[in-house]
Amino acid sequence: MRPTEKMRDSVRADWDAATDHPFCKALADGTLPLDKMRWYLVQDYKFIDQFVRLLASAVAHAPTLADAVPAAQFLGLITSTENTYFLRSFEALDVSAEAQAADPAPQTAAFQKLMADARHSGRYEQMLAVLIVAEWSYLAWAERYRHYDRALPFWFAEWIDLHSGPGFEAVVRYLRDQLDTLWTDLSPQQQALATASFQEAVRLERAFFDAAAAA
Fold first, then answer.
1. Residue 153: which residues within 8 A CB-CB, separation 6 or more?
2. What's the Rg (C-alpha) of the chain?
3. Reported pTM
4. Per-residue b/e over 126-164, b at no fewer than 16 CB within 10 Å?
């Protein structure tokens, strides 16, 4: 079994809860109340700053140029297509600048801190562990709903599109391959720290969806 699979299975209950969440099902079938979607988008957008910094740090720490290029290309997507999706959604859903400036929810702040800690660690495996959860967990839920009703409003539909399909699958495969490949070169302590970061990221993903559902 691959190291990333072992890490996922070590926190399987939280993984399954995060990737088969009622919030995601309601989003995909268009029944999610718009106030919940507004809260979710405002809070999720607060991840972007730390996520971009973390991903950029992973690019800088990649062993070779060939290892760095896919992450650099993904960074371009996050700062263009995905960023624009948020801005278009805020406008379409009448999310004011004041609402966008709301304080991070506790779950949001905790994930922001986890990303910052991974970046400041200077350790590639720590960065990868958090990035993998952020993207693999979203692929896992979005893939369930990629054949959604095409009448779905864009703020629901495009969020699923951004996190499913061959292009996004390739991003997740690349991130997992990076960590799986270097795993045997890590010390037991480094492996334990990366695993702990992975597990905490999964717990926080579940907590974030729980908070969004309760908003």
1. 30, 92
2. 17
3. 0.95
4. bbbbbbbbbbbbbbbbbbbbeebeeebeebbbbbbbbbb
Question: For every one of its 215 residues, what pLDDT tens digit does the chain have, with 9 covering 90 and above?
Answer: 999 999 999 999 999 999 999 999 999 999 999 999 999 999 999 999 999 999 999 999 999 999 999 999 999 999 999 999 999 999 999 999 999 999 999 999 999 999 999 999 999 999 999 999 999 999 999 999 999 999 999 999 999 999 999 999 999 999 999 999 999 999 999 999 999 999 999 999 999 999 999 99
Joined together, the tokens standing for residue 180 give 């799986």
For residue 9, give every residue at least 6 positions away whose Cβ sits within 8 Å of its Cβ, in sequence order, or none: 1
3-state secondary structure of 180: helix
What is the DSSP annotation of 54-84? HHHHHHHH-SSHHHHHHHHHHHHHIIIIIHH
Length of the chain: 215
Structure tokens at 27: 């989003």
- Only one residue has tokens 């986890």, namely 114
